[in-house]
Amino acid sequence: MVLPPANDRPPTCQVNGRQTTLGKPWTPTLVRAAAGGYTVVMSDDTPILDPTAPAPPAADDAPRPDPLRSVYTSTFGEVLRAAGISLAVSTYQAGKVILVRWDESTGTVNTHFRAFGKPMGIAADAARLAIGGQNTVWHYRNMPAVARKMEPAGTHDAAYLPRRVHVTGDIDIHEMAWAGDGQLWLVNTRFGCLCTLDADHSFHPRWRPPHLSALAPEDRCHLNGLAMLDGRPQFVTLLGETDTPGGWRANKAAGGLLMEVPTNRVLLRGLSMPHSPRWYDRRLWLLESGQGSLALANVRGGAWQAVATLPGFTRGLSFYGPLAFIGLSQVRESATFSGIPLVERLEERICGVWVVDIRDGRTVGFLRFEEGVQEIFAVEVLPWRFADMLDWGDERLRTSYVLPDEALAAVPEGMRE
Q1: CA 185 to CA 196: how far, in whole Å?
Q2: Whole-model pTM?
Q3: Residue 313 — pLDDT band, cuts 50, 70, 90?
Q4: Is the peptide bond before 11 cis (omega within 30 degrees of 0)?
Q5: If 193 and its partner were Cys, which of 81, 105, 153, 208 is the partner (CB 3.0–4.6 Å)?
């Protein structure tokens, strides 16, 4: 994938009054993702692309629009196409995991929805995918042989098949990540700890912030984000250094912390509802959600710097090359979100996935949900051009088998894939 150099800056994109550049060849075009929709094409000399702009009104006799509909810039689709990637996006509010792919046959972005009970954290790579739900972790494995047989022929290059379910109880799973030894680590927000899973227990507590005096299901500090380094848990975000049930809520606007797991040290204080810490490109990134920003952490100086400020509650972060894929949520003006800087700064907030060039903070493109999806938790890059997930009741699960290599050798050749 070739991106324009950081100093090539025409044309511009205006997001809630902030000018952000879109460099060539990423020409801004707004396209409805749902079939039968509309396209608004903007030439290179058109200066403004406003993601808050409403869809054109439907005719009186038009069918009711799909509540899960979305629109996207042509640059968003071009990024997926050029990079050969898909995205897995979770929305606990809508109860869906969304696969976002570029459909070469139609020349459009395809959003494919799978239903789950309160899906939040997603851990994914080329071979594995895990989803954390209300009281469950669902595990999937990729079977390329199944993908090759899916319709339309030649479209899919990955098919994640259900493999097993682990019942955790309601522990309010937030972020998840695989360690170098293959263990899946979970942020257990209700109990305020990092945990792993085994066959005998609901969860196995492995670490908790030292200021927590007990392992109790009381969401005392709202531990939420996890960053791995060299295959081990290294950094976490939490919303307060508090030790009482829901105590973090009193200072949510500026009580957030970044901590280092191996040393138990607090690296940053005063963050506004931080989420999604990531070690990438030898730097530590995080989302300061209460500000609606992507930030770089300077842990030695005890400071951080916003790289991009976006028109929504930033939560869910994944990288590919020089690009950051960031989830945005509208967030309701409820007790949880009232009083944070983002709500005071923006009367209207957006839900979608934003693509930001981390070299200079410019917005490259975005996908915006228009109605049914209002809050996003996780955004993960899948290294496949057109990935799919099979439902647990899919008929193909009856005749799809994964065997060890030594056992596969005994299967008649005509039956192997």
Answers
A1: 5
A2: 0.86
A3: very high
A4: yes
A5: 208
